Amino acid sequence: MDYADITLEEKQTVLEELRTIKEQFAARDWFPGSSGNLSVRVGDFSPDSFHFAVTASGKNESVHTPDNFLFVDSSCEPCETTKLKPSIEALIHAKIYRMTGCSAIFHVHTVFNNLLSERFGESGFLQVQGIELIKELGIWEENTSIRIPILPNHADILSIAKLIPSALNPDIPGILLRNHGIFAWGKNALEAKHHLEVFEFIFELEYRRLTLG
């Protein structure tokens, strides 16, 4: 589908979803400074051609303005004439869309995901076991153990994006970036939000477990 074929109603629905979720995450202090970014795919999907609305670069996510988001193509080029630039991490979003076919990706920086991703960064994953909310990721085995991938935090975003295919676990809808933040995704905005909330609960619980010894 060409961008021109996406209806105004579809675009407005996506932007409203993003604004609502941005406000909810900001209320939790998940966007310190101008950190974090959100995106939702719009229109039809193929790995070679898709479009998504994504956070504009340099915006304070705790402040609501009409120019918080713009639409880009699968190469992260703006679909309309605009002075806005997509977040540089849109390149990571695009790679995740291409590899998973998901419809929404949310990225936040929190104290707990930073601490744990740094603590376990050398191993390349955070392993957690026996946490009830793992079931909320669709994994129902009793006392199950999961590994959440951790990628190195290179200054070159393209270098990070190139590592994503080998790190992806189809059962785990998220990737940690070391000492940086979490990217979580889902089949729609509600599911991506749900997954992100689950991951953040797991991170805080695991951190407190470690501090208790």
TrEMBL record:
Keyword Zinc in annotation: yes
Q: Which UniProt keywords apply?
A: Amino-acid biosynthesis, Lyase, Metal-binding, Methionine biosynthesis, Zinc
Record carries keyword Transport: no
Catalysed conversion reaction: 5-(methylsulfanyl)-D-ribulose 1-phosphate = 5-methylsulfanyl-2,3-dioxopentyl phosphate + H2O
The pathway where this protein functions is: Amino-acid biosynthesis; L-methionine biosynthesis via salvage pathway; L-methionine from S-methyl-5-thio-alpha-D-ribose 1-phosphate: step 2/6
**Per its Swiss-Prot or TrEMBL entry, what cofactor is needed?**
Zn(2+)
Report the Gene3D superfamilies cross-referenced here.
Class II aldolase/adducin N-terminal domain (3.40.225.10)
EC number(s) given by UniProt: 4.2.1.109
Q: What is the cofactor note?
A: Binds 1 zinc ion per subunit.
Q: What class of enzyme is it?
A: lyase
Ranges where the Class II aldolase/adducin N-terminal domain occurs: 16-207
Tell me which PANTHER family the record gives. METHYLTHIORIBULOSE-1-PHOSPHATE DEHYDRATASE
Family of the protein in this entry:
Belongs to the aldolase class II family. MtnB subfamily.
User: What does the protein in this record do?
Assistant: Catalyzes the dehydration of methylthioribulose-1-phosphate (MTRu-1-P) into 2,3-diketo-5-methylthiopentyl-1-phosphate (DK-MTP-1-P).
NCBIfam families the record matches: salvage_mtnB
Query: What is the name attached to this protein's record?
Result: Methylthioribulose-1-phosphate dehydratase
Q: Which gene encodes it?
A: mtnB
